[in-house]
Design goal:
About 50% of the residues lie in helices and about 15% in strands. It is α/β, with parallel strands linked by helices and about 900 residues long. A hairpin with a 2-residue loop joins strand 14 and strand 15. The protein starts with 7 loop residues before the first helix and ends with a helix. The model is unreliable at about 105-110 (pLDDT under 50).
């Protein structure tokens, strides 16, 4: 049943209750049957499940397989041949796997936190009618049919149909996004069309769990509890929403699968060639099983060479560094991978209330002949409070705005109340839409009345002009109504004020006696104003190729006015209401989604549909907001952004980033930081793939010729130490020029860029050739000939050259297109990593224990310089390629 479309008596019959509520016995039976008025708790994931989930990666499987094979061959060699081979490969591989797995495990279960936060928003206790008496019960013990008693300050404990309302106003911003409290009534609502529903924000005879009574009092019958409430639907949407994989995660996953397949193919080919050469084509007989194991060892080395073991750790640390940098700019990152997602954001769907606006009703314009008298009247005919020391008025938002306006004119509420005490009143009533108060002004009895201007004018017989009362005329009345229309067109909320003077306090203070023969003073226009910094932020978004979208539960006129003011839209035709979305299928929405930049009067499920529709277009979507109604769409977005000050606990628990200062402009700063971080991660990925390809080329070529150029332990050292330190240093690069003047990258854009794959291939082959040639030089120095044999000196030279080459490659990758020598700033972290790498490399070869453990031999200064010189040739080779690349791009541009 749509309870808001039925009269009170019909609703009471439907829920089998009455105005006196339920009996205690009936309430207990319903509680036993239907369960408690609480949200369902999600199943928690154990640490073991998270650990096993973190291990679920093709590259991890490959590494563990390599470790198992390496261990088996080492055990066999030690037992069968009484050898003393070390288990270094096993321990190093397991250490790498453990580090990557632990880093992957550090994830928070945001769905659980979101549900807990929703639970905290519901009222702890409620006043209900049981057995015809008012009693206080735990809110979780409420059942359908309970009659709840509410007054100002009470949290609404469940979804209810109003039975009685005495000027009751309810704050629903967290659910609907509407900044102004809604005046509630008992009236029956009618559907315009049978197949259309009434938006949640327009259901004035309903109150919902999670909202708060801010004015008046009333009673209501519970029609939904627990997961059946609107809050429960949001909780269910949160549990159903899947966390979207970030663009970088997708690319790294694709890279992982690609490398795994490549490694398997290379290892199979290498193993097959080795078996054919060593077993079937060998000129001398030997231990076949030993030969097979030796071939296995080379295959393991190839597997290790192909996998960038340090890449997950390095990208994680780079993003962690980005998190620290963003926190200094008021952007707090909750999900690590959100750092890079920001860099490719193409759409920002923003809630209006509290995000683009201040969530603070403010008087922005007036129409009156006497601004001070108007402000005085509005402040006295007002129940909000503000003392001289208070920063803001305390009370219903509209009334607080009027008191704040008077305060700005040096008319202080506490002093006015003391100087002109209230001696009578006719409280606000939603039926007559007015409120009157009577004051003693130095012996004069003055009544001030405020309310809807068009109704107020009907009660006025004069107007205040040039310090005196003039008779009301049709011309003046028309002038006021035209002014009201102009204010309304600007989406301002209009309230008028009037006064009446008595010789003595009237005996009859009923509204119909007081609110007549009034003198019109003027009217005020109020709105929840835009944040000043948002104007520049919107312009910067557009300059960066990012499209801002406003999504709000507020009325379309207000939304259009705000959006036009901010520059989000230029015409009202670019705005649409939630009711129209309701009539659209997902396919229809996909077709027209690009026509609209403002969505008004929307419900939570609409916001999620809008986010999904943009994602269907291949866009990377960010969603900002602060209310509970934003939580499902924030979770569905590629990156969810919550507000740190005004944001609800629910929103903060599901978002990826929190704006500590609630400043929309902070998003722009975060986008810039995200673009820089993605650029740096791209540099690191290309750097590691280039160096790993070089290792593969060298190892695979050597294996085809019958010897092992580098072992698995050597390659793990290079990948984890030589690659990781420079990789981290590359992550500290400053943002390149014009980073916020280019369009956002596509979510489908390859990590390799336009010609990245060619760069990786050419430079990887070059490094592989350098390492192989270095081995031959070492072998020549050791044996005195160019015969290709297994050589400790050759292996040592290859290790040195590979280390140095990868260090120089890191310098080349400081910019993927610009010359290394054109960069204005030095990366001191990279120079530091160079020193560290040289020191560690020399240590491995120079310390006898480590030299023996790795199977190296001492090298002379001359050999050391040869390895360094060979590696240094990478820089001119890279500069030549970049120059060619720039020329090709210039020709394409022309």
């Amino acid at each position: 049943m749509k309870f808001y479309c039925e009269d009170k008596e019909t609703v009471l019959q439907e829920v089998q209750s009455s105005r006196e509520g339920l009996s205690s016995q009936e309430a207990a039976a319903r509680l036993e049957k239907n369960g408690r008025n609480k949200l369902a708790e999600p199943e928690k994931v154990s640490m073991l499940q998270r650990f096993l989930g973190a291990l679920n990666d093709p590259m991890i499987y490959l590494l563990l397989g390599a470790a198992a094979i390496s261990t088996a061959t080492t055990v066999y060699q030690n037992i069968a041949f009484n050898a003393h081979e070390s288990y270094a490969d096993l321990f190093i591989i397991l250490f790498v796997v453990l580090i990557n797995t632990v880093m992957s495990m550090v994830q928070e279960s945001k769905a659980e936190q979101a549900i807990e936060a929703l639970m905290q928003m519901t009222a702890a206790t409620s006043r209900v009618l049981r057995d015809g008496k008012t009693v206080v019960v735990k809110s979780e013990e409420l059942v359908v049919g309970d009659v709840v008693i509410l007054e100002a300050g009470d949290a609404v404990p469940a979804d209810c149909r109003i039975i009685d309302s005495y000027s009751m106003k309810v704050e629903e911003a967290a659910l609907t996004g509407e900044s102004v409290p809604v005046t509630k009534s008992m009236e029956l609502l009618m559907l315009e069309k049978a197949d259309k529903d009434i938006p949640l924000g327009d259901r004035v005879n309903m109150i919902y769990s999670g909202s708060t009574v801010v004015f008046g009092r009333g009673s209501a019958v519970v029609v939904a509890t627990g997961m059946d409430t609107e809050m429960g639907k949001i909780a269910d949407a949160l549990t159903q929403a899947q966390q979207e994989e970030t663009p970088l995660n997708k690319k790294l996953s694709e890279l992982s699968v690609m490398l795994t397949k490549l490694v398997i193919v290379i290892c199979i080919v290498d193993f097959a060639v080795g078996i054919v050469r060593n077993v079937f084509m060998a000129e001398t007989s030997g231990n076949v099983f030993s030969t097979v194991l030796d071939t296995f060892i080379i295959a393991v080395a190839l597997a290790v060479a192909a996998i960038p073991e340090g890449l997950p750790a390095v990208t994680t640390i780079i993003m962690s560094i980005g998190v620290t940098a963003m926190s200094k700019r008021q952007a707090l990152i909750r999900r690590l991978t959100a750092v890079e997602t920001l860099g490719c954001t193409q759409i920002i769907c923003s809630d209006k209330t509290g995000t683009l606006t201040q969530n603070r009703m403010t008087v922005v314009d007036t129409l009156t002949d006497d601004p001070l008298l108007l402000a005085k009247a509005m402040a006295l005919c007002n129940d909000a409070k503000r003392c001289r020391g208070m920063h803001e008025a305390d009370g219903e938002p509209t009334e607080a705005a009027l008191v704040n306006h008077a305060h700005d004119l040096r008319l202080y509420k506490d002093e006015l109340d003391e100087k002109y005490p209230r001696i009578g009143e006719a409280p606000f009533d939603s039926g007559r839409k007015m409120m009157s108060t009577i004051h003693n002004e130095d012996g004069r009895i003055v009544q001030y009345t405020k309310g809807a201007t068009e109704i107020l004018l009907e009660r006025c017989v004069g107007y205040w002009n040039n310090g005196k009362v003039e008779p009301m005329t049709e011309e003046y009345r028309e002038k006021v109504l035209v002014g009201c229309k102009e204010f309304a067109d600007r989406a301002l909320r209009v309230l008028g004020a009037s006064f009446r003077v008595y010789d003595a306090l009237p005996e009859n203070t009923e509204p119909e006696n007081l609110e007549r023969e009034l003198v019109f003073i003027g009217f005020t226009g109020m709105i929840d104003p835009c944040r000043p910094e948002v104007y520049d932020a919107i312009r910067e978004c557009r300059g960066a190729g990012i499209r801002p979208i406003m999504i709000t539960g507020d009325h379309i006129d207000t939304a259009v006015a705000i959006a036009r003011d901010l520059g989000i839209i230029t015409d009202a035709s670019q705005a649409i209401e939630g009711a129209m979305l309701e009539d659209m299928s997902d396919e229809e929405l996909d077709r027209v989604i690009e026509n609209y930049s403002v969505y008004a009067r929307v419900q939570p499920e609409h916001k999620t549909r809008i986010v999904r529709a943009w994602q269907t277009k291949g866009k990377v979507v960010a969603m900002t907001g602060d209310g509970v109604n934003d939580a499902p769409s924030i979770k569905a977005a590629d990156i969810g952004i919550g507000m740190g000050i005004t944001g609800t606990a629910v929103t903060k628990s599901v978002c990826d980033m929190v704006l500590a200062d609630d400043n929309f402009a902070t998003i722009v700063n975060a986008v810039e930081e995200g673009r820089k971080i993605y650029d740096n991660i791209t540099k690191v990925v290309q750097f590691q793939l280039i160096t790993n390809l070089g290792e593969i080329v060298a190892v695979f070529t050597a294996s085809l010729m019958g010897f092992n150029i580098l072992s698995a332990a050597h390659l793990l050292w290079i990948n984890m130490v030589t690659d990781s330190a420079p990789g981290l240093a590359l992550g500290m690069e400053e943002a390149e020029e014009g980073v916020m003047l280019r369009k956002p990258r596509s979510a489908d854009e390859s990590l390799f860029g336009g010609s990245g794959a060619i760069v990786i291939l050419l430079q990887g082959l070059f490094i592989g050739a350098l390492v192989f040639f270095s081995y031959l030089l070492g072998d020549r120095i050791e044996t005195g000939s160019w015969s290709i044999v297994q050589s400790a000196d050759g292996m040592t030279m290859a290790f040195l050259t590979c280390n140095f080459a990868e260090m120089f490659q890191a310098f080349c990758n400081r910019s993927l297109t610009r010359s290394l020598f054109s960069l204005k700033k030095q990366n001191l972290w990279l120079w530091g990593s160079l020193g560290l790498t040289v020191m560690l490399t020399v240590g491995v070869i120079g310390i006898p224990f480590l030299c023996e453990l790795f199977g190296f031999t001492a090298v002379s200064l001359g050999e050391f310089c040869i390895a360094l010189g060979l590696a240094a040739t990478l820089i001119p080779a890279s500069e030549i390629w970049k120059a060619v690349h720039r020329r090709i791009n210039a020709k394409k541009a022309n």
